[in-house]
Structure formats: C-alpha cells, structure tokens
Amino acid sequence: MNTMEKLQALRGEMRKKNLSAYIVPTEDFHCSEYVGDYFKAREYLSGFTGSAGTLLVMQDRAALWTDGRYFLQAEEQLSGSGIELMKSGQPGVPTLSEFLGEHLKKGAVVGFDGRTVTGAFVEDIKEKTAAKQVTFYGKRDLVDRVWEERPSMSAEPVWELEISYAGLSREDKIAKVRQEMEKERADALLVTALDETAWLLNLRGGDVKNTPVFLAYMFITKRRALLCAQKSAFSETICNELAKAGVTLLPYESIEDMVASLPAGQRILVDEKRVSYRLLNVISKGVEKINKPSPIALLKAVKTEREIAHMRSVHVKDGVAVTRFIYWLKSHVGTEEITEIGAASRLEAFRAEREGYLGPSFDPIMAYGPHGAIVHYEATPETDVVMQPKSFCLADTGGHYSEGTTDVTRTIVLGELTAREKRAYTLVLKGHLRLGAAKFLEGVCGQNLDVLARQPLWEEGLDYNHGTGHGVGYLLSVHEGPQNFRWRMGGESACVPLEEGMVLSNEPGLYLAGQFGIRHENLVLVRKGEKTNYGQFMYLEPLTMVPFDKDAIEVSLMTAQEIGLLNDYHAKVYETLSPYFTGEELAWLGEATAAI
Amino acid sequence: MNTMEKLQALRGEMRKKNLSAYIVPTEDFHCSEYVGDYFKAREYLSGFTGSAGTLLVMQDRAALWTDGRYFLQAEEQLSGSGIELMKSGQPGVPTLSEFLGEHLKKGAVVGFDGRTVTGAFVEDIKEKTAAKQVTFYGKRDLVDRVWEERPSMSAEPVWELEISYAGLSREDKIAKVRQEMEKERADALLVTALDETAWLLNLRGGDVKNTPVFLAYMFITKRRALLCAQKSAFSETICNELAKAGVTLLPYESIEDMVASLPAGQRILVDEKRVSYRLLNVISKGVEKINKPSPIALLKAVKTEREIAHMRSVHVKDGVAVTRFIYWLKSHVGTEEITEIGAASRLEAFRAEREGYLGPSFDPIMAYGPHGAIVHYEATPETDVVMQPKSFCLADTGGHYSEGTTDVTRTIVLGELTAREKRAYTLVLKGHLRLGAAKFLEGVCGQNLDVLARQPLWEEGLDYNHGTGHGVGYLLSVHEGPQNFRWRMGGESACVPLEEGMVLSNEPGLYLAGQFGIRHENLVLVRKGEKTNYGQFMYLEPLTMVPFDKDAIEVSLMTAQEIGLLNDYHAKVYETLSPYFTGEELAWLGEATAAI
Questions:
Q1: A-chain residues within 8 Å CB-CB of B530?
Q2: Which residue of B has its CA nearest to A513?
Q3: How confident is the model at residue A461 (pLDDT cuts 50, 70, 90)?
Q4: Which residue from B443, B459, B530 is facing A439, i.e. has the nearest CB?
Q5: H/E run at residue A229
Q6: Are the C-beta atoms of residues B433 and B548 closer than 8 Å to each other?
Q7: A447 has a chain B CB within 8 A of its CB
Q8: Helix (H, G, I), strand (E, B), or coil: what is residue B444?
Q9: Which of A325, A552, B267, B279 has the fewest CB atoms found within 10 Å of its own CB?
Q10: Helix (H) or strand (E) holding B512
C-alpha cells in the first residue's frame, strides 16, 4: 500500500468506531526518546522518518506536525501523500490541539492508541476543544489493523549490570524508592520510563536503539514490586535474582490490571506528563492521584561513588578513541577521500578497539562545513560529502561502555579558516569555559548558570537554539533529567538544584545556516567544593578528556582567565591521555595540549 | 497594662470563645510591607517593635517568631515578658505551623483576626496539624477587646495623580484589567494589595508609612468596579471623577458583602497567598476560585512611557541630592561631629531642597563601619555613632517625588581603608557592573541573570544573604513584584520574564559581621535592544545617577571590560549632573567621575 491507501484503510477502521479524528504520535508506550520498529506507526503510515512528528488523520484531510529540524525532510517525504505539513512553532501555525479545536464538530470522538499518548497530551486537547464537548477513544490501536507485516515487539535478552558497576543493589534502590513514596504518602508508584526500571533493577536490555533498556513497567507498593515485562527476555538466573529481591515478574500487558487493582482510598504517585492516557484511566475513581515526577528520576541522576569512579575511567578510554580520531582526521583530510559517513565509521572503529565498548549512545553527528549548522544532522548516503582541507568537521558522538556512557563534541579544524569561523569558534569556547569554571552555592539550578555559557554570544546578538546541557545516564539514556543547563523556566525544564554526583553536558554552540556550525561539549560532574561561612560551594569537574582544537582560537578575544582555564584543562588532558599514546601521536598530543 | 497583663486579658477573651491558641501576625488587612499604627497589634501585645514577627498565645505559654535581622532586638524586648523567642530558620526551630502540630490537642480551635492572615497561611497550619483535626475561628479581632487606647484607623486625604504622571487613565487601566480577567475567564477580581488599587485608580494617599497609598479594597466584575474605602478620605471632586470612570465608592467594611454576593457558577480570581482568610471564606461555595497572582501586579510593573520619562528625570534630581550629600560627608567627616542620624537628616535635607520631593520611600539606612554589616540597620539614639575619618558609611536611602520613586545605595569612603575593605568593595562593584551590563534575550528572568552579580563573590567563597534586586513602584511601594533579581526559584520568587519598562534595583553586597558592610545599588530600566536573527535582545539602562566612590577601588582586581563599564557610567553621571553643580562641588564631581 502507498501512503494514501494506508490512510484510506485507517479511515475505514475509524468509521467503524465512529471516530472523527485519529492521532498517531511518535512515542512508544513509555515516552522513550528512541523507539523500536514495532512502534513506528507514524512512520509506517505517513512515510516521514524523522524522530519527532505527530500525524492526525481525519476523514477528509490529514496533517503532520514536526519541528524545525525536519521541515525540509518532511516536505520531501510527505510530497504527494496528501498529508499537510504543519511546521510547529512557526507564526500562524496552530498546535494539534488548536487545530482540533477549530476543525472538529461538536460532540466529535477523537481516537488514538491510549498507550502512546500521555494524560497531559489529552488534557491539552480537552482544554483547547472545550467548546466542542469532544470525547476520546483510546482503547484500540487501529493502526495495527491496517499495518501489513508489522515488525514484532522486540524482546532482546535482559542482562545483569553487576553491583561493581551499579554501586547499589536493587534491594537498596527499591528501599530508597519506598522512602520517597512515604514522603509523598503514596501507597503505590507507577514506573513507565524504561530507563527508570532498568536503573532500579540493575538490569539492561536491547529493545531500544542506542539505549540498553528493555520494555517493561513497574508497579511498586509498600509491600510488592511488580515487574510487567516480556518473560522471554529473562533468563532463569535473573528471574531467581529478582525473586530474591522481592520482585515479581508478570506479563507486560498485565500492568493495566495491576494498576486497576489498587483499591479506592489509596494514593498513587503518577507523572501525568509521562504516563499514558490509558494507564491513567484504569486507575479506580476512588484512588487519589499524586501528579508529580517519579522520584526515581532524581535518585538515578545522582550517581553512586562506584558509578562516578567508572565514569571517570570510561572517559579516559573514550578520550583516547576520540583524540586518536581527531589526529587521524586532521592528518589525513585532503590526502585521502574521507566522507562524513566514513569518518563516523572510523571513529566507531577507534571506540570499538576499547575494552568494554558496547555501541553508540546516539546516532553520531559527523557534519562537514555547512552541515555543521544543522543541529541534529545525520549523514545519509544522499547528503554525505567528502571533507576538504578547510573549514570545520563538527563531531558529536558518544558511546556506551560497561563503565558508563559518553557524549562529546569537538569542532575539528580541517584546514584554512575564515576570520568569522575563528571568531565564532572562540566565542563559543569562551562560553563553554566560563560555565565549566562556575563555582556556585548548593541549591543553584542549571537555569541560574546557563547565562554563563551564552553571555559571550548574547553580547554580540548571537545565540544557539538549544539547551546548554542535559543530564546523562549511567549506561542508560544519554539524555536524562531532571537536571539540565537551560535558561527557560517551566514546561519540560524543571528547575532542579544541582547535586553532588549529577552528570551533565556543557555544550554551547553557534550555527550559521549554509556556512558552518560550532559546538564544544564536555560532560561535567557536579562536586562539592569548599564550605565557608556563606554556605556549601559546588563546582564542575570535567569528565571528558579530549583536546579542543587550538587551530581555530582567536587568542585576542579571550581574557587571561579564560586562557588559564583552557591551559589547565589541556594540561589535565595531556597528563591523562599521554600514557596511552606513543611516537607521532604522542608528539601531536603534546602540541595539541600545549599552553597558548 | 504590662505585657503579661495584656496576654492574660487576651487569654480571658480566648476562653470565652474556647480557643486553644490565638495568632497575632504583623500584617494589616492588605499584606502591606509597612502598616499603620492601628494594625500594630503584635507590637502592642508583645512589646517587640521589629518589622516582622508573629505572636502565638496559648493558655499556658506564648511564643514569637522572627527572623535573623531581629534576634538580638527581640531577645531584649521580650525579656521578662514570658514570651519565648522562636528564631525562624535556625536549626531545630519549628515553624509556627509545626509548633501547633506538636502542641495542640486533638480538636483544638485556633483563633486569629481572619483579616490579618492569608488563606495560604491557614492552609499551611491545616496541613501541619492534619492529625489534630483543628478548626479555625477568624471572625473576631480579640486584641481589639483588650487594647486600651488603640489608635484609630488612618484615613488621610486621598489625592489624584495627574494623568501627565501616570500616563494612562483609570478607565484605560480598568479596561486592561478586564482584558486580563477575560483571559482567565474570570467573572470577578478581588484586589486587596493597596498599591494595586492606588495604581489602578491613579490615586495616592497617606495611610501607610513610606508608601503613599490608602486603605481600600476593590472588587471588579465585567460591569462594575467597586471601591471599598473610607469615604472621609475622598474629596467631592475625586468622588465625581471616580463616578465618571464607572467606579462606585462603598464603605471599607462592605468588601465582605460584595465578595459574598458573587453568585454560584461564577469564577473569581484571587491570590490565596495574598488575600485574607476571612475574604476567601465569604466566597460562596458554588463560586470557582482561580488561585493566581493579581494581573495588576504585572501591569503595574511595566511602566508607561510617561512614567519612564519622569523616572529618568527624578533620578537626576535625586542624583544631585545624593551626590551633594556624598561630597558634604566626605569633606566634613573628621572635622565636624557627624553621627549616623545626623547624616541621614542631612541627606533628607538635600532631598527636600528638590522640587516635588514628598518624603522618604523607606526608613533610611545610614550605617557607619560595623553597622554597615547589619543589612537592615536603622540608627536609633541608642546605636547612633559619630563617624570617624576611616572605613565606610553605607547609605541606602530613597525618596518619593511626584515624578516617581528612588532607591540608591552608595558605600562612601570616609578615610583610610584596609586592603580587605578595598578588596570587598571592588568584588561587589564587579558584580554590580556585570549585572548592569547584561545583554539578554527576551523571555529571560531575573533568576537567569542573578549569577552575574554574585560570581565575583562566589569565586572567592563569599556571598550576600539577600536578593540582588527588587522591582520598584512608581510613587508606590519601593519594593514591588513580580520581577526580581534572585537565584532561588519558587516560593515568593516567581520567575517572571523581564519586560521592557520594568524597573529593578541592582544591589549586590558583602557583609562582614563586626567589621563593615558593602552594597552598591542602582535602579535599572529594562529596555529592548537590537533584534537579530537570534531574537529580540534586551539590556538594562541605569536610572540612578550618583558616582561610585573610586577611593576604595582596587584596580588590579578589575578586568579591562569592567573598568570600561565604570568609566562609561561615570562619564554619563558627569554629563547628567554637572549642569547642577558649580565651583568646588563641580571640581570634585569632575574628579569623582574621572576615568580610572
């Protein structure tokens, strides 16, 4: 079937249920950042392959909402499909909820697979369509009825993350979660985020690309810890270990019955921004909902001593791989034909040489010249280019190792640069260094500090349209909350104090469309510093150990303090990495990290 | 009666109503920062005169909560009264709600004058005493029955603020408020803050110290604008003008009936953090409460073009007065006996010479040497000292003029300084200059920028225990919201984007107990700067025009950029003020503002 035929088939199913509209989002049942093939219903129906987008199908029209990263791609992929492109955030473009508020008839029924949308999503529609007295139908996955040869749901083997890596047993973690539940006087906690379940149980899996998690829900009460997952993914050993820890393994689908079984009068902790509409709706009427973020997010964000020790050492490994790659790229570009995809494979190979390497933590961004200005660029055979000995290669990549997860961006000088390129590179570096050197009082949030990274750009009327930093999981999602470096308040960016043991990225950038892009990214660890009469001070320890390319620095733009910060960092990089290098490479590392 | 006798009399009244506890806070019926004498019930009963404190009377004990500013004073004033001092915020000290949760018996009744506590205050007690099933009695002011010779309620004449000052008519303002009500689908708005009513009606009064407002409530519906106030304070002319604008004047006490008259099914906008318990409780059961800040706060914070023009010119006047004072103080200290109180009177006299001066906008802080380390120091005959030709005089003062309100702090060098004093002075100045020079995107809040002022201190493990800046009213309260410069999120510090036309103080400090205090304060106006591809940029224009004392600057600690900022500011101060100076004073101004 082509797209139009697929939509017609879906409309047929909609008519049977008397639905005026059907919504197909990108999400799996767990609000995951990446989703398995089974969940790619929006992609199957519309043909649009971007990582974010929501399809709306009505009897007489269909539309797809996506964001600025994907306008060009979506225009191409939707062409001829009859699906209108809705450019989210552009002036005059309604949101999906607003669109429904305008176009639905009174009393219309809106459908979706209630497992793929959150309670908050439906609430927003309800609010924007208030005058239309709309009702919702979320019980059936109608796409399933028209999807020929749908891939099966992934159920890769679940494996144990040894306590020597995790630092805290699953029993201890469950006890901590119950303590947090007690603070909220909650009788039950519903865990739907896959990385939260994986963290809590010290288990990892392979059901989601780039993220070693497995499909599962947890339902935790004062006495019981129920794991609803695909039994075939669990070995007998792991089943026994779980049983020992008081965890009961139940079928994946049984989560609805478990949630429904909570008796009236009890209190359940659920995050309506993250939990699916359907699960929220099976909660009994008499149960009180405490709508707050899951306490596991914060527990998981504060790394254990073990995790910290491993993350420090994994960054030495990763630093060796990335630094070797930079040397290889700089010394071969122009003499060898190196494409973006080729360079990404080469870096992957350097990482694969390291012990304990498990795979990439996200799709690599290896962007030459103007491609660097596309924030989430991913080279495809159609876009791939051969790098020339001039301008920049922006390499934003990361890996999972048994000892943790990395995420690093370096903007690598391939040859001659324009004054503008140097100036941009240096301004972004100033911001990166200033944020990295922040010393601040306990209680301060990322929102308080973000300006330090942006200030050198803002002073010149420049900016970058993304957060300055995100939390990073331990062999989990490379993007995790709740902490971050952003300036915007509210919405998804909760203001969470930076606690000792949190890991974040520090990655300011600058993007000149059609010209080049700059980004400098280290992961940093939040640490306690001195305690004075004025309070407990905190600082950021850089975990990433890779030189910044000095060939693009316009020294005259930097203050003495900033030069000092760069030289100190480079001295530490040399001290850390030099034992792993010899000969020419070592000589180059010495130069690359020498004081300016 | 002495304190013990007064408490016994109150306990007698409490027994008649069967109350286990009675709470007497500092507030008037409007959550005002300063209160009239009629409202000083806590002071009358306890003898404690500080500006913040809450008295709890039980049958067998009494306790008073106050904050760190007043620990010493409260200890002295409560001595022998039998009232226990509760040092708020100290480790192990319960809050009033926690104390009640611990000490009340099951089913106890807690009393207070329900007009003097907010809904949120009572909610907090309810939560902390949940297990005790406490009920509340807020109908009677029991203190009134034991207060001999209670001052009468102030009813000073209300006067018109001409449109040439306000820039917007009361009709237009009421229309704007109704627009905001519509956005919330509110049928009614209850206005209890005195400065909000004064702003809305372009009226001023004299019922509250340091703040030209009058006792009043407003109740605004789609059609009616009811002003509940003391009729004797209004001239016939003003009554007629109000009637013309559709405003109905009713007795002050009738607000309860008006609020109670709102029919079920309607929606009322009330801020439960600011509106009194009693008013919240007269709202009919079927009325829906929208618990949000009053929209007037934000409307009032964004100054009109007229107000801005006047605030610029009033700062020239005020700058002349303060600069003249600084010259006088520096050139007379040591040769004349100048005390703190004497200096404050002298500055008041310099201000009084200026046309349109109405009086101080807050109690002046004129603090010599170690007194400068007491953040809210107010010299009394007991504490007053003669200034010596060494160390600093910290002068934090402000005035009301027909053209607006000022608030300025200078730390004035009286003679020889220690290296430590110079270093502290310079670090604080660096922070002040950095925040003042901030360029930022539209949408940024004060919480995003506060770090710029604190960073030079935080880098050395230092800090100041107050916000960096507050909003300033136009001939209203010198402290107003909702915008501010703070780093803490939530609570009273809402994150409000900085909008063009807002006025804030920029006042970092450093306080070394027993030694000296530093504070540098300018008022700044938020303005739109350039609009680039990256968005609308904003910057801060300094309104205050008074030189910073260069005699304390340790130039080696300042960056070239900071020196440039100071020199630019001083050049502007000279250009602005020099036309008002002659002879010796002019020569001194030239030196005081010369580039470093």
A1: 461
A2: B533
A3: very high
A4: B459
A5: strand A225-229
A6: no
A7: yes
A8: coil
A9: B267
A10: strand B509-512
CA B539 to chain centre: 24
Say yes or no: B530 contacts chain A, CB-CB below 8 A: yes
Question: For B537, which of A439, A449, A461 is closest by C-beta distance?
Answer: A461
Angle, to 10 degrees, between the axis of helix B560-577 and the axis of helix B583-592? 160
Helices within A437-476 (DSSP H only)? 446-458
- Rounded to two decimals, the pTM is 0.93
Instruction: Give me the amino acid identity at B376.
Output: H
Helix (H) or strand (E) holding B128: helix B119-128
The type of residue at B479 is H
Tell me if B118 sits within 8 A of B272, measured CB to CB.
yes
Yes or no: say if B38 and B141 are a contact pair by the CB < 8 Å rule. no
Q: Report how far apart the first and last C-alpha atoms of chain B are (Å, whole number).
A: 62
Contact B59, B70 (CB under 8 A): no
Residue A482, preceding bond cis, omega within 30 degrees? yes
* Partner residue opposite B463 with nearest CB, options A445, A451, A535: A535
- 3-state SS string for A305-340: HHHHHHHHHHHHHHHHHHHHHHHHHHHHECCECCEH
Q: Which of the residues A448, A483, A538, A539 would you substitute to probe the B interface, choosing the one with the greatest number of B C-beta atoms within 10 Å?
A: A448
Q: Indicate yes or no: CB of B534 within 8 angstroms of CB of A463.
A: yes
**Does A68 touch chain B if contact means CB atoms closer than 8 Å?**
no
ipTM surpasses 0.90: yes
Residues 6 or more apart whose CB falls under 8 angstroms from that of A352 comprise none
Q: Which residues of A touch B537 (CB under 8 A)?
A: 458, 461
Contact between B451 and A459 using a beta-carbon 8 Å cutoff: no
pLDDT band for position A376 (50/70/90)? confident
pLDDT digits (tens, 9 = 90+) for A287-304: 999 999 999 999 999 999
* Residue A471 φ then ψ, to 5°: -70, 160
Residue A534, chain B, CB below 8 Å: the answer is yes
Given CB atoms, is B489 within the 8 Å cutoff of chain A? yes
Kindly list the residues from chain A whose CB atom is less than 8 angstroms away from the CB atom of residue B463: 441, 534-535
Q: In what order do the strands lie in the sheet with B21-24?
A: B83-87, B62-66, B54-58, B21-24, B109-112, B135-137
A/B interface, count of CB pairs below 8 Å: 76
The answer to whether the CB atoms of A463 and B444 lie below 8 A apart is no
Query: Looking at residue A389, what is its pLDDT?
Result: 97
Cis peptide before B482 (omega within 30 of 0): yes
Q: Helices B560-577 & B305-332, crossing angle to 10 degrees?
A: 100
CA distance readout (Å), A576 to A397, A403, A573, A593, B450: 20, 17, 5, 11, 36
Question: What order do you get walking across the sheet with B399-401 strand by strand?
Answer: B357-360, B399-401, B404-405
- Give first-to-last CA distance, chain A, whole Å: 62
Two structure tokens written together for A112: 């979706």
Helix A560-577 with A419-436: angle, nearest 10 deg: 80
Among the partner-chain residues B439, B444, B451, the one whose CB lies closest to the CB of A449 is: B451
Query: Chain A within 8 Å of B257 (Cβ-Cβ)?
Result: no
- pLDDT band, very low/low/confident/very high, at B493 (cuts 50, 70, 90): low
Stated length of chain A: 596
Q: Is B124 exposed, middle or buried (0-12, 13-18, 19+ CB in 10 A)?
A: middle
